[in-house]
Amino acid sequence: QCLRMRTNAPALFKALTEHSALPEPAAGEESAWLISRDDLTPCFRSLSPGAAAALSLLMQGASFEAMCTELCAWYAADEAARQAAMLLREWIEAGMVCDFFSTPADE
Q1: Most CB contacts within 10 A, which of 38, 48, 81, 97?
Q2: Alpha-carbon gap, residue 85 to 70, rounded angstroms
Q3: What is the rounded CA–CA span in Å between residue 99 and residue 70?
Q4: pTM of the entire structure?
Q5: Which residues are CB-contacts of 103 (< 8 A; sequence separation ≥ 6)?
Q6: How many CA atoms lie within 13 A of 39 on its CB side?
Q7: Residue 36 pairs with which residues in a beta bridge?
């Protein structure tokens, strides 16, 4: 799941799990966080704006082409496809992608 927030909740959670000093709760700029789990262990990590947008598109059933197009907002056109492939590989290896769908090519 991708969660967008404007707080330092991830820093608070990290401090709690590491038994370190808690920062003061604070508002801030919006950031995107990937929330998942490894077996029964909850995991979270930040996502770049481009990765968050690409993940959101894929979760809505968009194509790899649409993902590449979206990433052009953050990367040069020749770099966007490479970034999309790297993100997709990362998400497949993490077990986040469980199925692929293809559409018939126009004849």
Answers
A1: 81
A2: 13
A3: 21
A4: 0.73
A5: 63
A6: 0
A7: 43
